[in-house]
Each structure stands twice: as C-alpha cells, then as structure tokens.
Design a protein that fits this description.
Number of domains: 2
Structural class: mainly alpha
Order of helices and strands: HHHHHHHHHH
Number of helices: 10
Amino acid sequence: MKKPLFSRYFLAVVALIATANLLTFSPAYAKPSKTQGVQEQPEYPPEELELLRTKFLELFDASRELASLLPDNNTNLERLEKARVQIEQLSSKELSGLRRGIDPSSVDWNTLAKARQTIANKSSEIMVAQQKSRAKFKENGGSFSVTSEGFPVASPFCLGPFGPEAIIAVDAVYAAAELVRDLAQDTCKQIAVVAGFGANTSLACLIFDTAFNVDQALWVAAHFCDDQFTKAQVDTNYARLDHIHNDLASSVANDNTNTASIIANTDSKASSIITNDNTNKAAIISNDNTNKAAIVSNDNTNTTTITTAIANAVTTLSSNSGSTQNQVRDLILNTQIEAELARDTGTTPVASYELPASAGGQLDKVRAIVAQTITSVLAAGGSVGTAQTFFAQGDQQKAAGQFKAAYDSYRKAYQVAAR
C-alpha cells in the first residue's frame, strides 16, 4: 500500500530526531561558570524555583505519556528520560536564569493536565484492546484456525485512529512544549553573557529542545495516523476482499469435490439399502406364510372351544332361568303382601290374600310371612308384644274356616310385631 504523505512526514521526523540527538548534552556541561566583572542575575525564592522545576517535569511526563501511544518509541522515551534527569539536576542558579524569562503562569498547565488525562484514557483503551486480543487468542487454544491469509494490517506504524479528543490532547502537549522551548531560547539569548551563566545556561536551555523535538515528531505521527487511517482502512479492506475472494474460490472447489464424494457414497448406500430391503421383504413374506397357517389352525381350535362354552352357558342359563323367575315373582308377591298387611285394619284387603290355597288364594303365604316376621324380630332381640297371641288366634280361625277373620288376626300380629 502506497503512503507518499507518510514518507514525507517520516523524513521530517527523522530529520528532527537527528537534530535533537546533536543537541542533547551531558549534565556535566550544565555547571555554571563565573565571569568576573559581570553583574549577578537576580535570585528567586527556592519555593518558586522548585515550582518551576515541577512544571518542567510535568511537561516532560506529558511528552513521555504521549510517546507511549505509538509503537517502537523506545529511543524517544530514553531521550525524554535523560532530559528529565537533567531537569532534576539543574542547580538553583540555572533555574533562576531560566525563571528570568519563563513565567510558569504563561503556560496553560490546566489544559496540559486535561491533555494528560485524555492521553491516559487513550492508552487504557489501547491496553484493553490488546488484552481482549490476547484473551481471544487464548480462547482459541493459543492458535487461530483461519486457513487463509491473516487480516492485513491497516498501518504498521499506527495502533488505530486517534480521534478528535486525542488529537486535541496531542496539540496541547505540543503547544506547551513549543512555548516553553521558545521562552527558554529567548531567555538564553538574553543572558548569554551574564556572569555565572553564559554559554552554560544556553546549553541548559537545550533540554527543552528535546521535549519539543520529540513532541513535534509525535504530533506529526499522530496527525498522520488520524488523517490517513481511513485511507489505510480502505486499502486494507480491498486487500482483505482479495483474501475472501480466494477463500471463496477454494471453498467452491472443495464443495465440488465433497459433492461428488457425497453423491458417490449416496449411490452406494442406496444400492445396499435396496438389496437389504429385498432380502428383508422375502424373509417377512416367508414368515407371514408360516404364521398364517399357525394362526388359522389356532383360530379354528379357539372357535370350537368358544362355541362349546357358549352352548354350555346357554344350557346353564336355561336351567337357572325358571328358578330365577320364581324367586323374582315370590319377592314381588311377598313385598306386595307385606305392604297390604301394613295397612290399617279397617281398610278393605285384597280378596286373594283372605282365601286359602285350596280356593286359589294366598292366605297360607300371608301366614308364612307373618310367622317369618315374628321370628326375625325375636332373633334380632326385638319385642313382638301380643303378636304371637294374634297369630295363634289367626291359626284357630283359619282352621275353623273363618278365613277373613284369620287374615285380620294375621294382619294385627304383623303390625304389632313390626312396630
């Protein structure tokens, strides 16, 4: 993928870094020298000088945090760390000389602090994305099973688009570094010949060139990544589309091979299934024929057995039918007689109940029912009162041919016993 704009940016960054490397100095050269006959610079309170040192360190910390957003930035991180150590080692006279031209209030430190927070958030996002990628890698058993080429890298130099907030933060850090560098250079030019500082103070000012040069290179890289990442993604998507096209072509060829294999295997299995079905069909027909003869023979035997059983049952029912009918008839008659015996003695009785059997009547049946009633009540522990007296009187009247009087006596005996 062609990146002419990035090439120009990259050459500019290389030139800036090379210039910065030439300007980097050892803390040993920061020792102030005294020039006789030159007036001393004004002194500032130690607290104010240490506050200035603290602000310088914050600026370098912001530059280091910014540098950590881009890959392969170890060289810049080392240069910033060396410069930070040099700031920590600046003497009070060197800080006083710098303070003469750099007022901490001239730098928007609040904006720098916000920028550092934005950079920290961006760094956390990158870290979380990397952790998710590693976790996904572990879920796949430590290896990916993709058979085609891997997804193309949109930009090997960029971890992703920076976005508006991150770009604003980068601009803020770069602006702060540029302002401090400019103020430091102006100060060093003004005091280049002042006694006790001179050229050594100018060398101390070169420290801020390091932060500026690194931040400038990072500013160029950040804007490149933000501006060019969309274009890089388009190129990457096109490359990935080629991967997918090749994958589809391979898949179609593989599907054709598998289709032919499946069809051949299906034909073979179909032939085997048909042969097995024919064999099973013949076996089933043969078994059915054998079972048919056995079933017919068994049905004939069962038919004879059932027919015999039905005939025996009919005979038994016929013999028992007369007896059962008589029992039913007697039960109905007995119930009717008892109902008549229970009626008031003043009511007109059924004529057949007052006549003896010799006359076609049921008086003998009436006497038997009354006698059974008295016996049953006594057997149950009940009292029959004068029922036995009336019963005996009925027997006498019946023997004397007084059948109606006998029926009345039997009725009284039944009613007394039944109460």
